[in-house]
């Protein structure tokens, strides 16, 4: 019998990515997705990144908008099998749909979660308090990692300024002693990076690199190129190549594998896994196939040489 938070059967190879690529590239009505376009002033559309997400979480405050992402425990089994006193930073926690199944299934992990929306942080705490009797291994804070550094206590002074240094917590600089937790074993970026303006992505990823321990893993999942969500955007919603703005002002970018690989390796990561997850769903009411494409990745911070 499965535990309440245990992941069920998971499949991610219903079709090859080239199949949907051919469908899109041979459909004239979808040609606006194939070329560099700049229909909207992206600088003005993303000038206040946190407000659209603040409004988004206010509108969806019921908690019914997201489901627990239990499949992530199948995708990233390291989160279940990790050693004692492991630390995870969830970047862009939303309403807790990622951290909740992790907290349910792993007694060894302490989760630190951030979001640019205070509404999201409130909702995350409410959902976790309602679902789990003890939440002493969960801590949240406000941060937009695309424009601001993570707080110094997320990784100790030495780890932030010497990225090949493992530091256990002792620190000559006493201003970091009280909250120093020695860096993260894991960072999760789950449908978060796609909401960051493309030009800010390299900086955001370097922030994640800085707070990981050497040997630590960044676990990535986000929208893939030609996912059905991308194909719903009209030409006027394009603000850059593969970058779109929704009617509520939130952004969405759709990744190909090469783009993800370059972003993370340029930041200093080693690629461990990188692939498209291709899942076919059926809308029985409309008798229509829906092709979902997500990018799955694992990237490691190098160990000292």
Automatic annotation (TrEMBL):
Which InterPro entries does the record match to this protein? METTL2/6/8-like (IPR026113), SAM-dependent_MTases_sf (IPR029063)
**Can you supply a Gene Ontology BP term from the record?**
methylation
Q: Drop me one GO molecular function for this one.
A: RNA methyltransferase activity
Q: Which domain of life is it from?
A: Eukaryota
Q: Extract the ranges annotated as region (Disordered).
A: 32-59
Q: What class of enzyme is it?
A: transferase
- Compositionally biased spans, kind Low complexity: 41-50
Alphabetic keyword roster: Methyltransferase, Transferase
UniProt cross-references to Pfam families, sorted A to Z = Methyltransf_23
| CDD domains xref list | AdoMet_MTases
Task: Give the Enzyme Commission number.
Answer: 2.1.1.-
Q: What does this protein do?
A: S-adenosyl-L-methionine-dependent methyltransferase.
- Family from the record: Belongs to the methyltransferase superfamily. METL family.
Record protein name field: tRNA N(3)-methylcytidine methyltransferase
Q: Which organism is it from?
A: Eruca vesicaria subsp. sativa (Garden rocket)
